[in-house]
Amino acid sequence: MNKNSIKYDNKNDYVDPLMGANHFTLLRWILAGLVALGHMWLLTTNYEPFRIHDWTGSYMAVNGFFMLSGLLIAKSLHTRRNMKAYAISRALRIYPALIILLLAFAFVFSPLFSNPGGAQNIYSGETWRYVLRVLTLGDPQGAPGGIFAGNREADFNGPLWTIRFEMVAYIMAGLAFMVGAVTKLWRTVFAFLAVQTLYMLLPFLIDVNTLPASILPLLRLSSVFLMGMVLWHAPILRNPRWWWMGILFATFALLGSTIVGELSANLALAALLMKFGLPQKSVPALTRIPDYSYGLYIWHYPVMQVVMWLFPDFGPFALMATSTPIFILLAGLSWYVIEKPALKLKAKFAIIRHSTQA
Length: 358
Hints:
By secondary structure, this protein is mainly alpha-helical.
């Protein structure tokens, strides 16, 4: 068994829940819900009220997604050590559902909810350039073909901006693992501190407006992804004591508006995710929750945009009541029809690889 899978304390043996049942699926539901909740206010009032200091719930939820991703990617890399399987599994997790979403954009959203709309949008080069741009990790922002023209945010699917950074994180994590940069605790801590320090200090060193717009988001999300990878190497940090959490939250309360504000928020968030995501005794019902989180994340925004296009005077609560059942249904269909069958291909690939080596 991997040495990271078990931690011993002075009182009793503690089996690391990361190697078995955990509550991470429930946490991903909550994080996706926080992102959607923030957008319900942004799309109707242009202001997200759920915040501590200047850190909004949706902003920190994205950080939480990347933190969990870093932890689980580190686990995958260190326990499987198969780069081909790793690459295939990452592509299967992201691309099937994303392709279906973009086909829906081309054949449904763009023709029906654009100004001007119509079938000609299906054949438009602009439509398919947007599809190709998103699939090749380009910038998904913007309103191709006048989609949702007149809405407060004339944008097809703003949250897709994180998908390309997720894919970049997967690629960089794989390369870093291959060269040994994240194979040991001290190396991973060094990488985290280097990225985190650059992220915090860069705005004070140069005019960031002269940099490509993707640099700061890349540093931000890379830092929390690496924080998750550090958690893999340090099992004791995955079992935070309540007094640890108290100190971290007090630190955030005091320093949340300073240069270390986001770092203090991320440390408190990490402790919270580990405390409730990796309990010493898991609840069986919570470990069997279907993982709708990715579907919730990629479908909620265009559904909300359609509702606002049809009912521009809606407030956040009306938008919530109207859109939530629809995007949960679409997320469920995405999970059972697209994502879950695609993920089963990972196991088939592993079986084929094993049989060829036998």
